[in-house]
Amino acid sequence: MALNDDIALLSIVPLFADIGEDKLRLIAFGAERRRLSRGQQLFREGAPADCAFAVASGSISLSRTVRDGSIEAVQTVGRGTLLSELAMISFVERKFTATAEEESEVIRINRQLFRRMLEEYPEVAAAVEARIRDNLQTMIANMEKLAPKFG
To answer: Which InterPro entries match (predicted)?
Structure first.
């Protein structure tokens, strides 16, 4: 795929929506493409995460282990989804196992590349911080809606 295709893909990822094309070009240039065969695991739940993956094509199923040891399907995601976005900023574990549902392609964005982007472009850091803050507030609001069911 061409660099311009990767830039177009990154521009539809919500975390990168407010980042200019010139800066997306730097991310795309430093990122690595990976092809996955149907059934191939991209990463496993509990593994250390040092990068995020943007789904370029195909579909990826996310699953997790529940308390009784069984595997629970969480959701299936496709083009434009960013998996493990916090791994670009800090040390975290994978919360799910990600498996290709079909022939798929992802773009791997490593922590070092992303941190460099944040250091060199404070406006990008501000936009990313705002996006993460919004995501956390949405998650908290959703959890508060569930609280009465458990109280």
So the answer is: cNMP-bd_dom, cNMP-bd_dom_sf, Env_Response_Regulators, RmlC-like_jellyroll
53 touches 106 (CB < 8 A): yes
φ, ψ (nearest 5 deg) of residue 97: -100, 130
Query: Averaged over 78-99, what is the pLDDT?
Result: 93
Amino acid letter, 39: G
pTM value is 0.86
Domain boundaries, the chain: 3-150
Whether domain 3-150 has CATH 2.60.120.10 = yes
Q: What is the average pLDDT across 22-36?
A: 93
Query: What is the distance between the alpha carbons of residues 132 and 86, in angstroms, rounded to a whole number?
Result: 9
